Structures are given as structure tokens and as C-alpha cells.
Amino acid sequence: MQQDVSDLRSNLSSLIDKCSDSCVDSRTSFDAIQRKQAVNVQIALHELGHDVNVAVATAVWRHYSSSLMASWMSGAESIASAKKTLVFYCMNTRHGGIENSTFNANDY
């Protein structure tokens, strides 16, 4: 159990670092629904111990979506669902999955 928590923290930190590094433009274009979901992701990340801006939260969700071959996945309709999705994603992204990803937020 303690190892799972450690893995989650490590993977989530790696994901945020990667997305922060690739996220340079905070004027990302997205519709009202995606904007609301990005705010939900931002709050979920805050609840998980990471204070990020909406641009980084958007990049994190796009990274997750990209891993599923999508441009924007559903799942962030509420803060709780965004949090669950991020925890599940980070708990199941092991063996360098995040670090070795070719995702770049500026591609979207």
C-alpha cells in the first residue's frame, strides 16, 4: 500500500513536470465544456497536492487523452471523476510510460 502511494506521487509528479515543460501557451483554444473540465482537472490536481494553472491542467488531461489515442477524453465532468481518472492513470502508468511518452502539449 505504501509503495502504491509512493508510485502514485512519483508518476503524478513526473506527469506534471512533463506537461509543465511542454506547456508554453496558456491561451489554449477549447470550447466551454473543455474549459470547465480543465478547471475540474486543475482542482483535482490541487486536491492531489499539486497547484498548477489551467494551462498545465489542460496539458495533463491532453496527455492522458493522447495516451488513449484521443484529443480530449471525457472523464473530467466533475472534480471527483477527474481525480479518480488521474489516480487510475498514474497508478497504471509504470515502467517509464510517462517519461518515455512523445506527448507535447503544443501539438494540440
Question: Could you walk me through the main structural features you see in this protein, from its secondary elements to its overall organization?
Answer:
There is one protein chain. The chain is mostly helical and 108 residues long. The protein is built from 4 helices and no strands. The protein has helices at 2-22, 32-47, 54-67, 79-91. Helix 1 (2-22) packs across helix 4 (79-91). The radius of gyration is 13 Å and the shape is globular. The termini are far apart.
What structural class should be given to the helix and strand makeup? mainly alpha
Shape: globular
Number of helices: 4
Please summarize the sheet with the most strands: none
Low-confidence stretches: 99-108
Mean pLDDT: 81
- What proportion of the residues is helical, as a percent range? 55-70%
Strand content: under 5%
Strand element count? 0
Distance, first to last CA: 36 Å
| H and E order | HHHH
Radius of gyration equals: 13 Å
Brief synopsis:
With 108 residues, the protein is mainly α.
List the helices and strands and how they pair.
Elements: H1 2-22, H2 32-47, H3 54-67, H4 79-91
Helix pairs in contact: 1-3, 1-4, 2-3, 2-4
Main attributes of the structure:
disordered C terminus, 4 helices, mainly alpha, 108 residues
